[in-house]
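RECORD TYPE: inverse folding
INPUT: structure tokens
STRUCTURE:
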């Protein structure tokens, strides 16, 4: 492997000198799979190209934003046009008005929306707004869910925190963490019980409506509706963290797919088309509590950046095409059915999950994955072997057993076939 990744290895040795762990986001460091992180130089469509000239079929898609595929011509053209007009003004632009209108048109639960620069900013701001509006301090999240690196939410978190084995980050004051209740995902009885005791002091419950940061765990039937009913009954706000599921599991996200109306929604990833954008929005009476109208302060120098908004507008236009998400889901289904057949032919316990354009792969004895406890029964060592066997064969999966995978519009039949060919050998190597 070393010669094949010689430039990535050299770059990593240089990177660790001035960047903590050599990466600007922990999950990229390959700590969850071992070995040397791959340094990428370019991308196009469904493919990544590393610093050594190797090509990969990409199932990470920058962790979700690249739903059209990399470097989509319409996105690139629109960015060039905007670049010729200007980069950042720190003042309102027509582009932000267009994006706000588009988001509110696609997601009717959002009557008013504020753009920010990341998913973390979106969830942090939504939490503050919920606390400001309800005048309550407690928040509820689920074990294994990840909502960005917000102090109140880095408690039994998923994604990189889970990958590195420190779901409870250092540096968070005990009395901050004490304001956060953590429950088991998909366990409505636990939610009912908690609210029966603490309901009067809970500002909000934040949930990934499809959990994509402990691998991919869909909600069991009735779970999301139950959350809607229980929070409403106790005057707590329901926040759907759709940073990953938004525009991914369907045009109108998980709330549209499952028919739930949250009070607030957080967004990110796809709405920036690969540039830094987050957003939070929802009921107008809540959003009116935000500065400059109300007492809840929130701000951002780069919020609504013209380049990022331009990319997001093109993406939302393209994915609104009739049949876009159905085709994405069908392609994902073909991939997962093929992988499952091959794994079982190799005699490996293997199970997948899928919701729209996101999916999970598990080396796991369970027939179906519904809980964090079941996720944790996965054979992580076997995943590591499989990951590297796929990497060596030109397939880039998320470098962690606790991350979801993503299908994009640019994955062609040849990519699916090549992925299955690689998997045949990779499963054999993982026995
Ligand atoms: P960012 O602050 O990383 O833009 O978004 C945080 C966030 C919030 N909510 C959900 C549901 C998310 O999935 C995320 C970020 N997702 C991870 C991938 N699992 C980002 C990858 C990374 O941390 O490098």
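DESIGNED SEQUENCE:
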């Amino acid at each position: 492997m070393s010669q094949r990744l010689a430039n990535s290895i050299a770059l990593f040795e240089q990177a660790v000198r001035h960047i903590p762990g050599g990466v600007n986001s922990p999950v990229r460091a390959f700590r969850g799979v071992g070995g040397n992180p791959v340094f990428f130089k370019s991308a196009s469509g469904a493919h990544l190209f590393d610093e050594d000239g190797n090509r990969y079929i990409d199932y990470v898609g920058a962790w979700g934003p690249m739903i059209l595929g990399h470097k989509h011509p319409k996105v690139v053209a629109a960015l060039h046009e905007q670049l010729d007009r200007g980069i950042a003004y720190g003042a309102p632009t027509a582009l932000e008005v267009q994006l706000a209108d588009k988001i509110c048109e696609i997601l009717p639960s959002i009557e008013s929306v504020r753009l920010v620069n990341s998913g973390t900013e979106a969830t942090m701001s939504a939490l503050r707004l919920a606390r400001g509006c309800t005048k309550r301090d407690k928040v509820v999240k689920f074990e294994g869910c990840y909502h960005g690196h917000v102090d109140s939410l880095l408690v039994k978190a998923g994604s990189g925190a889970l990958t590195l084995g420190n779901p409870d980050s250092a540096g968070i004051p005990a009395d901050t963490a004490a304001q956060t209740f953590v429950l088991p995902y998909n366990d409505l009885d636990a939610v009912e019980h908690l609210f029966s005791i603490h309901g009067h002091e809970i500002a909000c419950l934040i949930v990934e409506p499809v959990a994509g940061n402990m691998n991919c765990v869909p909600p069991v039937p009735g779970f999301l509706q139950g959350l809607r009913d229980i929070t409403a009954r106790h005057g707590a706000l329901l926040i759907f963290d759709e940073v990953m599921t938004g525009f991914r599991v369907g045009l109108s996200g998980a709330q549209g797919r499952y028919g739930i109306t949250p009070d607030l929604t957080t967004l990110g990833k796809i709405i920036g088309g690969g540039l830094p954008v987050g957003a939070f929005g929802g009921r107008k009476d809540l959003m009116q509590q935000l500065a400059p109208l109300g007492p809840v302060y929130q701000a951002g120098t780069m919020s609504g950046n013209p380049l990022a908004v331009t990319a997001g507008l093109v993406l939302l236009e393209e994915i609104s095409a009739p049949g876009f998400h159905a085709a994405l889901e069908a392609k994902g289904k073909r991939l997962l059915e093929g992988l499952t057949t091959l794994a079982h032919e190799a005699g490996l316990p293997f199970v997948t999950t899928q919701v729209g354009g996101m999916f999970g792969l598990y080396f796991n004895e369970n027939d179906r994955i519904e809980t964090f406890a079941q996720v944790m029964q996965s054979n992580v060592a076997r995943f590591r072997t499989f990951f590297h066997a796929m990497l060596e064969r030109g397939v880039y999966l998320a470098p962690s057993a606790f991350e979801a995978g993503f299908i994009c519009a640019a994955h062609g039949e040849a990519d699916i076939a090549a992925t299955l060919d690689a998997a045949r050998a990779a499963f054999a190597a993982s026995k």
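NOTES: The CA atoms of residues 242 and 267 lie 5 Å apart.
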